[in-house]
Design goal:
55 residues, mainly alpha, 75% helix, flat
């Protein structure tokens, strides 16, 4: 299970931390943190889409 997780779950988290610089949330409360995380994921996906079109 951990071997699969290493290749599936960890790379997106690393991208969010290193490329986008999200180390902690700026909102409090589960609902707001979920909304903030969705925005971060949207930004990451848009960045990837833009780089795919350029390259």
């Amino acid at each position: 299970a951990y071997r699969k997780r290493k290749w599936i779950a960890e790379p997106p988290n690393g991208w969010i931390k290193s490329v986008l610089g999200l180390r902690q949330f700026s909102m409090r409360g589960l609902h707001r943190v979920r909304a903030e995380f969705k925005l971060v994921c949207l930004a990451l996906n848009l960045r990837r889409m833009c780089s795919m079109q350029s390259g």
